[in-house]
């Protein structure tokens, strides 16, 4: 089930609340917005007496790309994971433009490893995440001090950043990569480090 756009829903909730002259909470949203959103989000799950489950994908926009705005903030507390689409990656031509740093899954640790994916899944995931975060830090530092001031290690992280976004995150419209192919690709990208 895809719910879109939850931001519009929350804005409408704020307008109705204001029209009813209720005491506003953060940024004018009603204090019961958390309860209202959780009631909607938690409708997904298993159906008693049936196989399978219902997965819900709520979609929302972040006003001014502010992840601390009440709507994405409360949604983050309620849901089991978030996929963060990034305007800068989109501008670079990286599709899908998923920024892995603010994205998360609270269920990942229960769904990876021996018997589900591969033993090295958690390890490679942690290394990719740490290296990407370091690459982003180096990119920010480069903007301040210039490329000449960067160390050889810094240049390795910049190279990793480019390959990670261009080869790992980016996928063609008809590309179907299995989890095992993704893990192999991740190791090949990480081999740039000594």
From TrEMBL:
Domain ATPase F1/V1/A1 complex alpha/beta subunit nucleotide-binding: 1-105
Annotated GO MF terms: ATP binding; proton-transporting ATPase activity, rotational mechanism
Pfam family, one: ATP-synt_VA_C
Keyword Transmembrane helix: no
Gene Ontology process terms (BP): vacuolar acidification
Coiled-coil features, chain-numbered ranges: none
InterPro entries, per the entry: ATP-synt_VA_C, ATPase_a/bsu_AS, ATPase_F1/V1/A1_a/bsu_nucl-bd, P-loop_NTPase, V-ATPase_su_B/beta
Domain ATP synthase A/B type C-terminal: 111-194
Assigned keywords, A-Z: Hydrogen ion transport, Ion transport, Transport
SUPFAM superfamilies reported in the protein's UniProt record: P-loop containing nucleoside triphosphate hydrolases (SSF52540)
Keyword presence, Ion transport: yes
Family in the record: Belongs to the ATPase alpha/beta chains family.
Protein name as it appears in the record: ATPase F1/V1/A1 complex alpha/beta subunit nucleotide-binding domain-containing protein
């Amino acid at each position: 089930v895809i719910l879109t756009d939850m931001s519009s829903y929350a804005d409408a909730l704020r307008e109705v609340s204001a029209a009813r002259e209720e005491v506003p909470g953060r940024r004018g949203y009603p204090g019961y917005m958390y309860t209202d959103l959780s009631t909607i989000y938690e409708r997904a799950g298993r159906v008693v007496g049936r196989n399978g489950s219902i997965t819900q994908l709520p979609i929302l926009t972040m006003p001014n790309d502010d992840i601390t705005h009440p709507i994405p903030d409360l949604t983050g507390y309620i849901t089991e994971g978030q996929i963060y689409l990034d305007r800068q990656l989109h501008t670079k031509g990286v599709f899908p433009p998923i920024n892995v740093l603010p994205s998360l899954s609270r269920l990942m640790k229960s769904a990876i490893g021996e018997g589900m994916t591969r033993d090295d899944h958690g390890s490679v995931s942690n290394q990719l995440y740490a290296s990407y975060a370091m690459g982003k830090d180096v990119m920010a530092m480069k903007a301040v001090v210039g490329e000449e001031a960067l160390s050889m290690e810094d240049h390795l992280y910049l190279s990793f950043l480019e390959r990670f976004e261009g080869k790992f995150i980016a996928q063609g419209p008809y590309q179907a990569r299995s989890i095992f192919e993704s893990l192999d690709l991740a190791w090949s990208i990480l081999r740039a480090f000594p």
